[in-house]
Design goal:
3 copies of one chain form a homotrimer. Chain A has 15 helices and 19 strands. Chain A is α/β, with parallel strands linked by helices. The two termini of chain A are 23 Å apart. At the A-B interface, helix 1, helix 13 and helix 15 of A face strand 8 and helix 14 of B. Chains A, B, C: Belongs to the sulfatase family.
Chain lengths: 491, 491, 491
């Protein structure tokens, strides 16, 4: 029906959840039997599109991830909601575009008292409400003050660090931290602070990636002992800077000449080793068949820091594909057929409603979600977001980079240049601007994104103070300039 | 008592409603008997002060409205809360000055995702809670996204369109709409989209004004069948642009030379015909005696588009009388004596509390209303707003037009000129500035309006993106300039 | 434990109250017996550090206050949360830094419709919930519109005036007020309006300070008659301008040559006389032993208006010690030993949690408090805020004055100059900048204050409209400049 089609494209994929919960047709039988699957969501940090074996990497080996990919489904076009860590993670946890909740910037460094509030119920809380044992391991980056702690957001267990990254070697960061404490300082860089377990300082002794893998295994064991389904958010900080790898892992990549790339590869390899360990433990515990494993990155690989996003254009921070399209796999022996690639676009924003549906969780009343449950589309191998919009928007100093994808088309405004139009289905590297050929489509897409932008919230924080000052001085977001198309045509 | 007088003028007519409801002495007997009257509120769009027979129009005939006026009461000084459609309607629906709820601009075009939230309980919801069958027919203009739909705001029935206006001829807009859909466009101008009934697309076949009158009759019939009192908000988009009239109606106005005026007159005539049809149906259904009919416009007539606001100064968009004083009548055989004119100022903001009182409705706890129940004053023929302030405020590009009326005096700051003072009781055309004669009164009025302005909200949207950007660049609202009186005197 | 130490200093003294209430070990026995003490909190207005006998004044005699000090404890380093009246009082009433609730400016003059909302439960409401009979006498200055009235904030009784100050002589202000009313004016200066009792105008006939003392005595009698514990907030407007004293009181200070100082001294003397009267009445009613009396000022003395803050630097409005360190005493025969001086810093922000603890009151769920219950530390004579931060921040025209104290150190940025560091434990007059000696400590303190600033709210009002306009034009708060330390060092 025409009218419905129009509305559905306009409001993109906004789902306003009612208290009745989300139902997943494909899984109705299992849920009826009360058999909630485990969900293991593994998030890498700044991992490039081409930096895992299952996406074609020539120089980095990721045997354990590749095995999961081979037995599961690989996604060609998985998009996160923002090309930076903090906003991307806020989106995954809340199911909202970060711009809709004022979280479109990374949190200020260090020890800030701002964060993503519990007004937006996190996926962990939703799963916990449905009976899940919930855990987060690794990097948080959604608020360092007590009220923003993972334990306040529905995670029964948290092991890791609250900032946006961390030094990988305990012997290094412990020494540096103690030195500053001895000087009487208190506002110490978050990359150096001790790790914590549920708010209590712990003394980590392993290379951080290995420590997190170890804790994930412990968590899986606990869940098994409890006979509770688990939801585990395993957020490795690797291969985010600082580039620090173990000698043994570096030894695997002697063939890589570039030192940064070599270190980066070794860091990814350590992540892959951790994945292997956890998979082994799932098997040992008899949970392997009944666990949905999802793996992706929080944003594109950072250029100049060892990553490779080929064949995508640009990298972390960009609204070109290299900024926010990431490697992704799903693995679930019970339900997912082995060896498929899924070419249709899917969103990190879809994870919240999809996990909730799979776990039989009810959504909080009035909860708005910007993605959708993709499970039925995935099972049917159809596009979950046909005719719908996928947006990416990064604010810079006095202007914004913006892009909107709908079906094969992607409209892009980058580096303060004019809007361009690409057919990303055929032109994944965004090389051929076809805006002159389809001016009406470009204008239509841009004006739709402008409509989308109207209820964006002002940022609740900025990464740096001067960024906030310039935001105000330049009367940002200046969407009048962002959504201006050169040729004011026939609309 | 001095103190009370002071407070009452200061806070103007703010009523904070308690859960005990509003009581109307004059109607206590009726309500005790459980006999709630029907309320039919008809709102014209951009109708000029002098464009109905009952206000003295020489060239436009409105026989049905005139008959209601003759048997009812006509208001000489009925003021809406803003000289533009969107903010004026937001005020009527919520009972709040639009500046108090961030709704002081028209919504952005088209298909925006912003709107007036249900945090401010709409009059429809209040009436519905009191047992009314509620309907809205016509133009909405308070939000196009699902959460702002009339059905989410207490209207059982909605028939019409969500935008700020519409093409009047189905054969025209249907064709234009289909063409754009065929081009693959989705963000299509709201003046062209199909009409809807309770969220479902319908295929309207009549001239829009006639279609809305037809649906109003249907609604009245439904209510009669249900034996429920009804609250009907009939919001004709006529005679708002585009100026489009039926040939038959145009034929009635061959005496008008000016083509725009002729078309405008024919559009008003079609509205009048609709009013006649509904009145006939009320009589046929035995509801005529027990229905309060209120008719007014959402703001003044638009100069250059066929309207005539004589003897008022300026028109739509202005803080002079022509911008926000509109024709108004009330008709209710049971209670209103025929043939009266009411000279005291009344407000569109008074409709909410007056309707609630007449219908015996309780107000939501904590609900703030900026108007008051005028029924007792109307029955007693006394000024409902003696010593109280009536404000109008329109933000422009870097400055604001503002005016405040108290009793006979009106302080006006227009077109960025100095504040002037008029005695609008004697000088309805605002020709004689008496500020030099009463500087203390002017300063007192302006400083009262400044106090009123302090808890205005920042706009939640702008009509155009560049308007919002300039708002921020120019540090609007710049009330320091708005409320500056030249001669800083003795206060 | 290192980690806890770090967190505690970072978050300063933020206490998130749970519904379980605050417990005070020292008082457990009393509360168990259900014997809640009376609390009499007396707040002077703009009283200088050196303007009471118990702080060493040579020319002003305050025999009644000195007697309380002698039998109680005197605080050397009592800090209010802001060097201006309105924000300081907002902090005392809510337990929050005014910057955290948008109350960092004085309210606009006059008759504004903004104020401190009840979203932040006031201490009076908390005490009332615990069974206290609550009263406020004197200056309110937290909102003049009905919803901000003391009676809406938990005060059973209010006698006084709502604005930020008042003329002291009824014969003067009554005449001036009546003259303006006769002119038809309504927006009359709040210094001239009649006083009120629970929202009803009253005709005060005494010198205001004496009138407030009289009403306090009446309140104490009422509480005694009710056999209820009382919480009385006695907010004298003296010795705030206008400088107006009674002839009899002036006669006591013929030795003071300077007319302003003489008048100021007489005004303080009248306050002291009132304190004496209330103490007498407490004794007469048998409540003396069981009443905690706290006396302090809302900010430092105003230079040029008769005050003396020696040995502190600067005065009202400053982030130097003279701006926000005030005289303070506590007196409670039952619990406080006579004659002590308490050298450790305490905060006006501590009053809320301390009063709540002493009165056995539960805190509202989720209530955040920026201070802490200092009772246990007071009893043990240890520093309640060891290693914690005390902040003061005043926004000016395009920049901010800021200071942070931690233990003996105070970092100060004043008059748009570079940050300085003082050892205020040894150098109370802030004369020796030691920033060059301790650059790492200075940087650490400033960066902590920057972290603290991130969740400050935008001001909900400004004292004057042009102040708000300039705030926006200059993209305030410009914390990027405020928290810039010259030497960007080793952090």
């Amino acid at each position: 029906m025409r009218f419905n089609r129009k509305i559905s494209t306009l409001i993109s994929v906004v789902i306003v959840a009612m208290s009745t919960g989300v139902s997943s047709c494909a899984l109705a039988t299992e849920k009826a039997a009360g058999e909630q699957p485990n969900i293991l969501f593994i998030l890498a940090d700044d991992l490039g599109y081409n930096d895992v074996g299952f996406n074609g990497s020539k120089d980095i080996s990721t045997p354990n991830l590749d095995a999961l990919a081979k037995q599961g489904v690989t996604f060609d076009a998985a998009y996160v909601a923002h090309p930076f860590c903090g906003p991307s993670r806020a989106a995954i946890m809340t199911g909202r575009y970060p711009h809709k909740i004022g979280a479109q910037f990374n949190l200020p460094e260090d020890n800030s008292n701002v964060g993503v509030s519990a007004d937006e119920t996190f996926i962990a809380q939703t799963m916990k409400n449905a009976g899940y044992f919930t855990g987060a391991m690794g990097k948080w980056h959604l608020g360092e003050a007590p009220q923003y702690h993972p334990n306040k957001h529905g995670f029964d267990e948290f092991y890791g660090f609250l900032g946006g990254g961390h030094n990988y070697f305990p012997e290094e960061f412990e020494k540096a931290y103690n030195k500053r404490v001895a000087q009487g300082l208190t506002n110490i860089n978050m990359y150096l602070t001790p790790l914590e377990h549920n708010g209590k300082e712990v003394r980590e002794t392993e290379y951080i990636t290995d420590g997190l893998s170890r804790e994930a295994v412990t968590f899986v064991d606990k869940a098994t002992a409890k006979q509770q389904p688990f939801f585990l958010y395993l957020a490795y900080n690797a291969p985010h800077v600082p580039l620090q790898a173990k000698e043994d892992d570096l030894a695997q990549f002697r063939h890589i000449k570039d030192k940064k790339r070599r270190t980066y590869a070794a860091m990814v390899y350590a992540v892959d080793r951790g994945v292997g360990r956890i998979v082994s433990q799932l098997k040992a515990n008899g949970q392997y068949e009944n666990t949905l494993i999802v793996f992706m990155s929080d944003n594109g690989g950072k250029l100049g820091q060892g990553a490779n996003n080929y064949p995508l254009k640009e990298g972390k921070g960009s609204v070109q594909e290299g900024g926010f399209r990431t490697p992704m796999l799903m693995h679930w022996p019970k339900h997912i057929k082995a060896g498929n690639r899924f070419a249709h676009p899917v969103l990190a924003l879809d994870l919240y409603p999809t996990f909730a549906a799979i776990g039989g969780a009810s959504l909080p009343e009035g909860k708005i979600l910007d993605g959708k449950n993709i499970w039925p589309s995935l099972m049917a191998n159809v596009a979950p977001h046909e005719n719908e919009f996928i947006y990416v928007l990064r604010h810079r100093d006095g202007y914004s980079d913006a892009a909107a994808r709908r079906n094969q088309y992607k409209a892009v405004k980058n580096h303060n240049q004019n809007w361009k139009l690409f057919n990303v289905a055929q032109d994944i590297s965004e090389e051929n601007d076809i805006s002159a050929k389809h001016p009406a489509i470009l204008r239509d897409m841009v004006s739709s994104m402008e409509s989308w932008s109207w209820n964006n919230q002002q940022p609740k924080w900025f990464h740096r103070s001067d960024e906030g000052a310039r935001w105000r001085l330049k009367a940002m977001p200046r969407f009048d300039k962002t959504f201006q198309v050169d040729d004011h045509g026939t609309k």
